Amino acid sequence: MSLPDQPPGVVEEHLDELAELTRSAGVEVVARAVQSRKAPHPRTFIGSGKAEELAAAASTAKADLLIFDDDLSGGQVSKLEDIVDCQVLDRSGLILEIFQQRAESREARTQVELARLQYLLPRLTRRWTHLSRQVGGIGVRGGEGETQLEADRRILRRQISQLERELKKIEKTRKVQSRRRRQATVIALAGYTNAGKSTLFNRLTKAKVLAEDRLFATLDARLRRTVLSDGSPVVYADTVGFIRKLPHHLVASFRSTLAGIREADLVLHVVDRSHPQWREHLEVGREVLADIGVDDGQILVVYNKIDALPDGLPTSDGLPLSAVTGAGLDALDEALKERFSRTGDAQRAAG
Ligand SMILES: Nc1nc2c(ncn2[C@@H]2O[C@H](COP(=O)(O)OP(=O)(O)OP(=O)(O)O)[C@@H](O)[C@H]2O)c(=O)[nH]1
Ligand SMILES: [Mg+2]
Protein backbone atom coordinates (compact mmCIF):
# COMPACT_ATOMS: atom_id res chain seq x y z
CA MET A 1 0.00 0.00 0.00
CA SER A 2 1.23 3.44 -0.91
CA LEU A 3 0.77 6.17 1.69
CA PRO A 4 1.24 9.91 1.02
CA ASP A 5 4.49 10.27 3.02
CA GLN A 6 6.36 7.65 0.97
CA PRO A 7 8.70 8.76 -1.80
CA PRO A 8 7.70 7.40 -5.23
CA GLY A 9 9.32 4.10 -6.20
CA VAL A 10 9.65 2.88 -2.64
CA VAL A 11 6.45 0.84 -2.80
CA GLU A 12 7.59 -0.93 -5.98
CA GLU A 13 11.00 -1.68 -4.42
CA HIS A 14 9.36 -3.12 -1.35
CA LEU A 15 7.04 -5.21 -3.52
CA ASP A 16 10.09 -6.51 -5.42
CA GLU A 17 11.49 -7.66 -2.11
CA LEU A 18 8.14 -9.18 -1.11
CA ALA A 19 8.19 -11.11 -4.40
CA GLU A 20 11.69 -12.38 -3.50
CA LEU A 21 10.46 -13.42 -0.07
CA THR A 22 7.49 -15.17 -1.66
CA ARG A 23 9.74 -17.05 -4.05
CA SER A 24 11.98 -17.99 -1.13
CA ALA A 25 8.96 -19.51 0.60
CA GLY A 26 8.46 -21.70 -2.46
CA VAL A 27 5.40 -19.80 -3.71
CA GLU A 28 4.96 -18.50 -7.26
CA VAL A 29 3.86 -14.89 -7.81
CA VAL A 30 1.08 -14.61 -10.39
CA ALA A 31 0.05 -10.96 -9.97
CA ARG A 32 0.72 -7.83 -7.93
CA ALA A 33 -1.18 -4.66 -7.13
CA VAL A 34 -0.68 -1.35 -5.36
CA GLN A 35 -3.32 0.64 -3.53
CA SER A 36 -2.86 4.34 -2.74
CA ARG A 37 -4.70 5.73 0.24
CA LYS A 38 -4.35 8.59 2.68
CA ALA A 39 -4.52 6.09 5.54
CA PRO A 40 -5.23 2.37 5.94
CA HIS A 41 -8.88 1.38 6.17
CA PRO A 42 -9.49 0.08 9.69
CA ARG A 43 -11.46 -3.00 8.66
CA THR A 44 -10.17 -3.99 5.22
CA PHE A 45 -6.82 -2.12 5.18
CA ILE A 46 -7.04 -1.43 1.43
CA GLY A 47 -10.72 -0.46 1.35
CA SER A 48 -13.56 -2.70 0.31
CA GLY A 49 -13.66 -1.52 -3.33
CA LYS A 50 -10.02 -2.48 -3.82
CA ALA A 51 -10.61 -5.73 -1.99
CA GLU A 52 -13.41 -6.63 -4.43
CA GLU A 53 -11.06 -5.79 -7.30
CA LEU A 54 -8.41 -8.10 -5.84
CA ALA A 55 -11.00 -10.83 -5.36
CA ALA A 56 -11.72 -10.76 -9.08
CA ALA A 57 -8.03 -10.68 -9.99
CA ALA A 58 -7.27 -13.55 -7.60
CA SER A 59 -10.02 -15.64 -9.08
CA THR A 60 -8.85 -14.96 -12.66
CA ALA A 61 -5.26 -15.84 -11.75
CA LYS A 62 -6.45 -18.87 -9.72
CA ALA A 63 -4.45 -17.62 -6.75
CA ASP A 64 -4.41 -19.55 -3.48
CA LEU A 65 -2.83 -16.80 -1.47
CA LEU A 66 -2.99 -13.02 -1.16
CA ILE A 67 0.13 -11.57 0.48
CA PHE A 68 0.36 -8.03 1.87
CA ASP A 69 3.65 -6.19 2.38
CA ASP A 70 2.24 -4.48 5.46
CA ASP A 71 1.20 -6.04 8.72
CA LEU A 72 -2.52 -6.62 9.13
CA SER A 73 -4.60 -7.07 12.25
CA GLY A 74 -6.43 -10.34 12.88
CA GLY A 75 -9.72 -8.61 12.13
CA GLN A 76 -8.42 -7.28 8.81
CA VAL A 77 -7.17 -10.72 7.79
CA SER A 78 -10.50 -12.40 8.42
CA LYS A 79 -12.47 -9.59 6.79
CA LEU A 80 -10.24 -9.76 3.70
CA GLU A 81 -10.43 -13.56 3.58
CA ASP A 82 -14.22 -13.27 3.49
CA ILE A 83 -14.04 -10.89 0.53
CA VAL A 84 -11.28 -12.44 -1.59
CA ASP A 85 -12.10 -16.05 -0.80
CA CYS A 86 -8.48 -17.20 -0.48
CA GLN A 87 -5.91 -17.28 2.30
CA VAL A 88 -4.50 -13.90 3.33
CA LEU A 89 -0.99 -13.56 4.70
CA ASP A 90 0.87 -10.43 5.81
CA ARG A 91 4.59 -9.73 5.63
CA SER A 92 5.32 -11.03 9.11
CA GLY A 93 3.32 -14.19 8.42
CA LEU A 94 5.30 -14.78 5.24
CA ILE A 95 8.67 -14.30 6.94
CA LEU A 96 7.56 -16.63 9.73
CA GLU A 97 6.63 -19.21 7.12
CA ILE A 98 10.13 -19.03 5.59
CA PHE A 99 11.76 -19.21 9.01
CA GLN A 100 9.68 -22.24 9.83
CA GLN A 101 10.80 -23.97 6.65
CA ARG A 102 14.47 -23.23 7.36
CA ALA A 103 14.94 -23.66 11.10
CA GLU A 104 17.16 -26.66 11.80
CA SER A 105 18.74 -26.51 15.22
CA ARG A 106 16.67 -26.98 18.35
CA GLU A 107 17.29 -23.36 19.31
CA ALA A 108 16.15 -21.97 15.95
CA ARG A 109 13.10 -24.22 15.90
CA THR A 110 12.12 -23.14 19.39
CA GLN A 111 12.63 -19.47 18.53
CA VAL A 112 10.51 -19.73 15.41
CA GLU A 113 7.75 -21.62 17.18
CA LEU A 114 7.72 -19.01 19.94
CA ALA A 115 7.53 -16.21 17.40
CA ARG A 116 4.72 -17.99 15.58
CA LEU A 117 2.60 -18.36 18.70
CA GLN A 118 3.23 -14.75 19.70
CA TYR A 119 2.16 -13.72 16.22
CA LEU A 120 -0.95 -15.87 16.43
CA LEU A 121 -2.11 -14.77 19.88
CA PRO A 122 -3.55 -11.32 18.99
CA ARG A 123 -4.80 -12.71 15.67
CA LEU A 124 -6.89 -15.53 17.07
CA THR A 125 -10.36 -15.16 15.67
CA ARG A 126 -13.31 -17.51 15.64
CA ARG A 127 -11.74 -19.17 12.59
CA TRP A 128 -9.03 -20.62 14.76
CA THR A 129 -11.17 -22.13 17.45
CA HIS A 130 -9.97 -25.67 17.19
CA LEU A 131 -6.78 -25.27 19.10
CA SER A 132 -7.87 -26.98 22.27
CA ARG A 133 -8.82 -30.05 20.28
CA GLN A 134 -5.55 -29.93 18.33
CA VAL A 135 -3.04 -29.39 21.06
CA GLY A 136 -4.70 -29.48 24.42
CA GLY A 137 -6.45 -32.78 24.63
CA ILE A 138 -9.09 -33.52 27.23
CA GLY A 139 -9.73 -31.24 30.14
CA VAL A 140 -8.19 -28.04 28.83
CA ARG A 141 -11.52 -26.28 28.50
CA GLY A 142 -11.80 -23.81 31.39
CA GLY A 143 -14.64 -23.31 33.81
CA GLU A 144 -18.23 -22.38 33.05
CA GLY A 145 -18.64 -19.48 30.71
CA GLU A 146 -15.17 -19.57 29.21
CA THR A 147 -15.60 -19.32 25.47
CA GLN A 148 -13.69 -21.47 23.04
CA LEU A 149 -11.73 -18.38 22.01
CA GLU A 150 -10.70 -17.64 25.58
CA ALA A 151 -9.73 -21.27 26.08
CA ASP A 152 -7.61 -21.14 22.94
CA ARG A 153 -5.87 -17.99 24.09
CA ARG A 154 -5.13 -19.57 27.43
CA ILE A 155 -3.59 -22.61 25.74
CA LEU A 156 -1.44 -20.39 23.53
CA ARG A 157 -0.21 -18.37 26.51
CA ARG A 158 0.72 -21.54 28.33
CA GLN A 159 2.64 -22.85 25.33
CA ILE A 160 4.39 -19.50 24.97
CA SER A 161 5.69 -19.53 28.53
CA GLN A 162 6.78 -23.13 28.15
CA LEU A 163 8.76 -22.24 25.02
CA GLU A 164 10.29 -19.24 26.76
CA ARG A 165 11.53 -21.45 29.56
CA GLU A 166 12.93 -23.93 27.06
CA LEU A 167 14.75 -21.16 25.19
CA LYS A 168 16.35 -19.88 28.40
CA LYS A 169 17.73 -23.36 29.06
CA ILE A 170 19.14 -23.64 25.54
CA GLU A 171 20.69 -20.17 25.83
CA LYS A 172 22.40 -21.09 29.06
CA THR A 173 24.06 -24.10 27.43
CA ARG A 174 25.18 -21.96 24.55
CA LYS A 175 26.69 -19.35 26.89
CA VAL A 176 28.82 -21.99 28.57
CA GLN A 177 30.03 -23.15 25.18
CA SER A 178 30.85 -19.63 24.04
CA ARG A 179 32.84 -18.99 27.22
CA ARG A 180 35.01 -21.96 26.35
CA ARG A 181 35.65 -20.45 22.95
CA ARG A 182 36.62 -17.04 24.22
CA GLN A 183 40.39 -17.52 23.80
CA ALA A 184 40.10 -17.33 20.00
CA THR A 185 39.45 -14.17 18.01
CA VAL A 186 35.85 -14.32 16.80
CA ILE A 187 34.84 -12.62 13.53
CA ALA A 188 31.10 -12.51 12.81
CA LEU A 189 29.69 -12.15 9.30
CA ALA A 190 26.52 -10.10 9.53
CA GLY A 191 24.32 -8.16 7.12
CA TYR A 192 21.22 -8.07 4.97
CA THR A 193 19.77 -11.37 3.82
CA ASN A 194 21.27 -12.65 0.53
CA ALA A 195 24.32 -10.36 0.87
CA GLY A 196 26.65 -13.34 0.49
CA LYS A 197 27.61 -14.02 4.11
CA SER A 198 27.51 -17.81 3.78
CA THR A 199 29.40 -17.71 0.48
CA LEU A 200 32.10 -15.60 2.13
CA PHE A 201 32.08 -17.88 5.19
CA ASN A 202 32.63 -20.90 2.95
CA ARG A 203 35.39 -19.13 1.06
CA LEU A 204 37.20 -18.03 4.22
CA THR A 205 36.90 -21.32 6.09
CA LYS A 206 36.61 -23.85 3.25
CA ALA A 207 33.30 -24.93 4.76
CA LYS A 208 30.31 -26.04 2.74
CA VAL A 209 27.32 -24.37 4.34
CA LEU A 210 24.25 -23.74 2.22
CA ALA A 211 24.55 -20.57 0.15
CA GLU A 212 21.61 -19.88 -2.09
CA ASP A 213 19.97 -17.14 -4.08
CA ARG A 214 17.11 -17.08 -1.62
CA LEU A 215 16.23 -14.82 1.26
CA PHE A 216 17.00 -16.31 4.67
CA ALA A 217 18.98 -19.30 3.45
CA THR A 218 20.75 -19.29 6.81
CA LEU A 219 18.87 -19.41 10.09
CA ASP A 220 21.35 -21.11 12.34
CA ALA A 221 24.56 -19.45 13.34
CA ARG A 222 27.59 -21.50 12.33
CA LEU A 223 31.12 -21.25 13.63
CA ARG A 224 34.33 -22.46 12.09
CA ARG A 225 37.93 -22.15 13.12
CA THR A 226 40.67 -21.26 10.66
CA VAL A 227 43.85 -19.17 10.47
CA LEU A 228 44.86 -15.88 8.85
CA SER A 229 47.78 -16.00 6.42
CA ASP A 230 50.24 -15.33 9.29
CA GLY A 231 48.90 -18.32 11.20
CA SER A 232 46.83 -16.38 13.77
CA PRO A 233 43.82 -18.47 14.78
CA VAL A 234 40.38 -16.99 14.18
CA VAL A 235 36.82 -18.26 14.41
CA TYR A 236 34.35 -17.10 11.78
CA ALA A 237 30.63 -16.98 12.60
CA ASP A 238 27.97 -17.09 9.89
CA THR A 239 24.66 -15.56 11.06
CA VAL A 240 21.01 -15.06 10.13
CA GLY A 241 20.39 -12.22 7.69
CA PHE A 242 18.68 -8.92 8.44
CA ILE A 243 15.71 -7.48 6.60
CA ARG A 244 13.80 -4.22 6.73
CA LYS A 245 10.51 -4.29 8.63
CA LEU A 246 11.48 -7.49 10.43
CA PRO A 247 8.52 -8.50 12.58
CA HIS A 248 9.30 -7.39 16.11
CA HIS A 249 8.33 -10.68 17.78
CA LEU A 250 10.74 -12.43 15.43
CA VAL A 251 13.45 -9.98 16.36
CA ALA A 252 12.69 -10.58 20.02
CA SER A 253 12.96 -14.33 19.78
CA PHE A 254 16.14 -14.17 17.69
CA ARG A 255 17.69 -11.58 19.96
CA SER A 256 19.87 -14.10 21.76
CA THR A 257 21.18 -15.48 18.45
CA LEU A 258 21.91 -11.95 17.30
CA ALA A 259 23.45 -11.09 20.65
CA GLY A 260 26.20 -13.56 19.72
CA ILE A 261 27.27 -10.98 17.14
CA ARG A 262 27.96 -8.46 19.91
CA GLU A 263 30.41 -10.82 21.57
CA ALA A 264 32.49 -11.06 18.39
CA ASP A 265 35.83 -9.23 18.31
CA LEU A 266 34.96 -7.91 14.88
CA VAL A 267 31.80 -7.77 12.80
CA LEU A 268 32.24 -7.94 9.05
CA HIS A 269 29.16 -6.11 7.85
CA VAL A 270 28.60 -7.74 4.45
CA VAL A 271 26.75 -5.60 1.89
CA ASP A 272 25.67 -6.77 -1.58
CA ARG A 273 27.12 -3.82 -3.46
CA SER A 274 25.54 -4.97 -6.73
CA HIS A 275 22.00 -4.70 -5.32
CA PRO A 276 20.05 -1.63 -6.48
CA GLN A 277 19.00 -0.97 -2.87
CA TRP A 278 22.43 -1.53 -1.33
CA ARG A 279 22.34 1.82 0.48
CA GLU A 280 19.14 0.90 2.28
CA HIS A 281 20.57 -2.54 3.11
CA LEU A 282 23.65 -0.86 4.57
CA GLU A 283 21.43 1.44 6.62
CA VAL A 284 19.22 -1.41 7.91
CA GLY A 285 22.36 -3.35 8.84
CA ARG A 286 23.75 -0.37 10.74
CA GLU A 287 20.49 0.07 12.63
CA VAL A 288 20.23 -3.60 13.60
CA LEU A 289 23.86 -3.72 14.70
CA ALA A 290 23.46 -0.56 16.79
CA ASP A 291 20.29 -2.02 18.24
CA ILE A 292 22.07 -5.21 19.32
CA GLY A 293 24.70 -3.05 20.98
CA VAL A 294 27.60 -3.48 18.54
CA ASP A 295 30.07 -0.55 18.65
CA ASP A 296 30.90 1.28 15.43
CA GLY A 297 34.57 0.57 16.06
CA GLN A 298 33.79 -3.14 16.08
CA ILE A 299 32.40 -3.06 12.53
CA LEU A 300 34.21 -3.38 9.21
CA VAL A 301 31.99 -2.87 6.16
CA VAL A 302 32.79 -5.17 3.24
CA TYR A 303 31.22 -4.57 -0.16
CA ASN A 304 30.57 -7.96 -1.69
CA LYS A 305 29.67 -9.04 -5.25
CA ILE A 306 31.87 -6.43 -6.93
CA ASP A 307 32.27 -8.93 -9.78
CA ALA A 308 28.62 -8.20 -10.61
CA LEU A 309 29.15 -4.43 -10.76
CA PRO A 310 29.12 -3.00 -14.28
CA ASP A 311 31.59 -0.20 -13.56
CA GLY A 312 34.29 -2.00 -11.59
CA LEU A 313 35.29 -1.16 -8.05
CA PRO A 314 33.06 1.04 -5.94
CA THR A 315 34.65 4.26 -4.75
CA SER A 316 32.92 4.32 -1.37
CA ASP A 317 34.65 3.54 1.91
CA GLY A 318 34.81 -0.07 3.08
CA LEU A 319 36.49 -3.10 1.60
CA PRO A 320 35.42 -4.15 -1.90
CA LEU A 321 35.50 -7.88 -2.54
CA SER A 322 33.88 -10.82 -4.26
CA ALA A 323 33.20 -14.00 -2.32
CA VAL A 324 32.70 -15.77 -5.63
CA THR A 325 35.85 -14.76 -7.54
CA GLY A 326 37.99 -14.19 -4.47
CA ALA A 327 38.88 -10.63 -5.49
CA GLY A 328 39.72 -8.44 -2.50
CA LEU A 329 40.22 -11.34 -0.10
CA ASP A 330 43.96 -10.69 0.22
CA ALA A 331 43.21 -7.11 1.23
CA LEU A 332 40.71 -8.41 3.79
CA ASP A 333 43.32 -10.78 5.19
CA GLU A 334 45.78 -7.86 5.46
CA ALA A 335 43.20 -5.69 7.21
CA LEU A 336 42.42 -8.46 9.70
CA LYS A 337 46.08 -9.16 10.43
CA GLU A 338 46.76 -5.50 10.96
CA ARG A 339 43.77 -5.11 13.20
CA PHE A 340 44.42 -8.08 15.40
CA SER A 341 48.15 -7.61 15.72
CA ARG A 342 47.42 -4.01 16.70
CA THR A 343 45.00 -5.19 19.41
CA GLY A 344 47.73 -7.57 20.51
CA ASP A 345 50.22 -4.70 20.73
CA ALA A 346 47.76 -2.57 22.66
CA GLN A 347 47.09 -5.42 25.06
CA ARG A 348 50.80 -6.04 25.52
CA ALA A 349 51.37 -2.31 26.15
CA ALA A 350 48.53 -2.21 28.68
CA GLY A 351 49.59 -5.41 30.41
N1 LIG B 1 28.02 -12.46 -8.27
C1 LIG B 1 28.20 -12.75 -6.98
N2 LIG B 1 27.28 -13.47 -6.32
C2 LIG B 1 27.51 -13.76 -5.01
C3 LIG B 1 28.70 -13.35 -4.35
N3 LIG B 1 28.62 -13.78 -3.07
C4 LIG B 1 27.44 -14.45 -2.95
N4 LIG B 1 26.77 -14.44 -4.13
C5 LIG B 1 25.46 -15.07 -4.40
O1 LIG B 1 24.47 -14.45 -3.62
C6 LIG B 1 23.47 -15.39 -3.22
C7 LIG B 1 23.30 -15.37 -1.72
O2 LIG B 1 24.47 -15.84 -1.12
P1 LIG B 1 24.49 -16.39 0.38
O3 LIG B 1 25.91 -16.62 0.71
O4 LIG B 1 23.52 -17.50 0.56
O5 LIG B 1 23.93 -15.10 1.15
P2 LIG B 1 23.67 -14.93 2.72
O6 LIG B 1 24.09 -13.55 3.06
O7 LIG B 1 24.28 -16.04 3.48
O8 LIG B 1 22.09 -15.01 2.74
P3 LIG B 1 21.10 -15.43 3.95
O9 LIG B 1 21.64 -16.64 4.61
O10 LIG B 1 19.83 -15.65 3.24
O11 LIG B 1 21.03 -14.24 4.87
C8 LIG B 1 23.95 -16.75 -3.75
O12 LIG B 1 23.27 -17.01 -4.97
C9 LIG B 1 25.44 -16.53 -3.98
O13 LIG B 1 25.95 -17.35 -5.00
C10 LIG B 1 29.67 -12.59 -5.09
O14 LIG B 1 30.72 -12.19 -4.62
N5 LIG B 1 29.36 -12.32 -6.40
MG1 LIG C 1 23.48 -17.43 4.67
The stretches of 5 or more residues where confidence is low (pLDDT under 50) are 128-142
Calculate the terminal CA-CA distance, rounded to whole Å: 58 Å
Largest sheet: 6 strands, mixed
Named once each, the bound ligands are: guanosine-5'-triphosphate, magnesium ion
Domain count: 3
Q: Return the CATH topology of the largest domain.
A: Rossmann fold
| Dominant shape | globular
CATH domain class of the largest domain: Alpha Beta
Description of the molecule:
The structure is a single chain. With 351 residues, this protein is an alpha/beta fold. The chain folds into 3 domains: 10-89, Rossmann fold, CATH 3.40.50; 104-137 and 147-173; 183-350, P-loop containing nucleotide triphosphate hydrolases (Rossmann fold, 3-Layer(aba) Sandwich), CATH 3.40.50.300. The chain contains 11 helices and 8 strands. It has helices spanning 10-24, 48-60, 74-84, 91-102, 106-120, 131-136, 148-180, 197-205, 248-262, 278-292, 329-350; strands at residues 65-67, 87-89, 185-190, 222-227, 233-238, 266-272, 299-304, 319-320. A 6-stranded mixed beta sheet has the order 4-5-3-6-7-8, sandwiched between helices. A two-stranded parallel sheet has the order 1-2. A hairpin with a 5-residue loop joins strand 4 and strand 5. Helix 5 (106-120) packs antiparallel against helix 9. The longest helix is centred in the middle third of the chain and has 33 residues, at 148-180. It is globular. Mean pLDDT is 84; it is low at 128-142.
